[in-house]
Amino acid sequence: MKRSFSLRYCPVGAVSEIGASAHYVQFDRWGVLLDAGLDPHRATQDGVPAYDALSNHPVNAILVTHAHLDHMGSLPVALQHFPNARVYMTPATAELTEVMLRHYLQVQRKQAAEQWQAYRPLYTEEYLDMIRYLFQSFPYKTPFGLHGYEESGLRFTFYDAGHILGSAGVLIEWKRRRLFYTGNVRLSSQFILKGARLPDAVDILITEATYGADDRAETIKRGAEIKRFAGRLSERLKLGGVVLLPVFALGRTQEMLMLLHRLRQKNRIPAVPIYVAGFGLAINRLYDRMLHKIYPQYRHGQLRTITFGRWRARRRLNGPAILISTSGMLLPGSASFGFARQLAEDARNAIFFVGYADPETPGGLLRDKRFDTLQQLFGLPRLNCSVEVFHFSAHAHRGELLKLVRRMNPSCVVLTHGEKPALEWMARHIPEVAPQSRILIPESGQWYAL
Ligand SMILES: [Zn+2]
Ligand SMILES: [Zn+2]
User: Fold this and answer.
1) What is d(CA 248, CA 330) in angstroms, rounded to the nearest whole number?
2) Is residue 176 domain-shared with residue 45, that is, in the same domain?
3) Rounded to the nearest whole angstrom, what is the distance from the C-alpha of residue 89 to the centroid of ligand 1?
C-alpha cells in the first residue's frame, strides 16, 4: 500500500519552552533523532524526552547539534532505548559532549547526596566509557550517509551554527528533498565565534525561536552595549569592588573572557585580575585546543593567557577583580551562588548578568530584583551590591530568524525552542517573508506529516 506521505515528524521533547530538545523524523523505513536533550531543571527522569513514544519506530541515527545539556543531556538514555542507532556530531561536539556528560554525572551525584532531588543519576561512568566509542564525528560541510543503511539514500551535512564551539545545524537530503534543523543558531558574530554559515534553499526548516518574543534583542546595538558594559564595569572596579559574572560554563564563559581581554587591551577597563571559577575552566581548555581547527586565525592557548589564575576556594574576595563563574543561573550549590552570597552585602560589588537565566532560579530572581525571596535563599539581611543586565546573546534575534526564513524559503517551517509567545510571534510574521510557507507550532508527542 502506498502511503500519501513518507516523511513524518514527532517532537518527543519540549517545544514551547527551553527544555529538552529531541525531534524525530521518519523517512519511510528509516528514522533519525535530531538532538537528545534534557531539561536540567526538572527531576532527572521528568527531564528526559518521551523516548517510549518511538518504541515502534526505527531510530537509525541520532544527530547531536551541540553540547549544551538541553540538546544532548539524555543521549545515554536515548542509547539505552535505541542501542543500534549511529551517533553523529561534529568533532568538537563529540569532545565537549563527553566532558559535559561526565561533569553532569557529578552534578547529579551531588544533588542526590544533598537530597535536593530524590533520584539516582541517569547513567554511570562505565556506561559513558562504553558509549563514547559510538560517537562518529564529521566536520562542517562534509556530507555523509547513514552507515550500514546506504540504501536509505539519506545524506547528512553539518553547517556551522555560530552558537558555541562545535555547534551545527543539520541538513538532511533525501529523495530530492532538503530538511534543515538549526539546532541553536547565532547569525551574527560573537566575541570568539563568527556567525552561522547555513545552506540556501531548503524544503523543510525546523528552527529555534528563543528570542521570538524579545523586542529589545533586535534593537540593541552591539557596540553601544559593549560601551555600557565597559562603563559600568570600570565604575565598580574603580571603587575597589568585585564584579561577578555568573555564566554558563560552555560558551558564555569563553565569549566573556574574550570580550574582557579585548577591553583590557584597549584600556577600556582597568587592568585588574580576571578569575575563572567552576567548570568553565575545563571548557576553556577544550576551546584552546580545538578552536583553531575551525578558525585558523585563533591563536592556540589564547584563553589560558587571559585569566589571572584559578580561583582558590579559601582565598578572600578582594577587589578590584572580575570573577567569571558557573552556574549562569546561580543554582544553589554552584560556585557562582557561593560567590554571590559573599559579595551581596558590600555596595562596591556588583553582579552582572550577561546571558539567559530562568525566572525561577536564584539568577532569575536577582535579575528581576525579587529581593525578598532572594534574601531568604541567601540567608542575608540585605542585598547591597548592584545588579545589572546586559544583552550579549548566543542566539539569533527574531529579525535575523525572519531573514533566514526568507533566504531558505521553505515550504514548511516548524517552530521550536522558544516560549509560547516567541513561537507565536514568529508564526505571525513568517507570512511576511515566506507567504507560501506552511507554519507549524508542533505539540510534544504529536505526529505530523511534513
Ligand atoms: Zn545551546
Ligand atoms: Zn538550547
Assistant:
1) 10
2) yes
3) 14
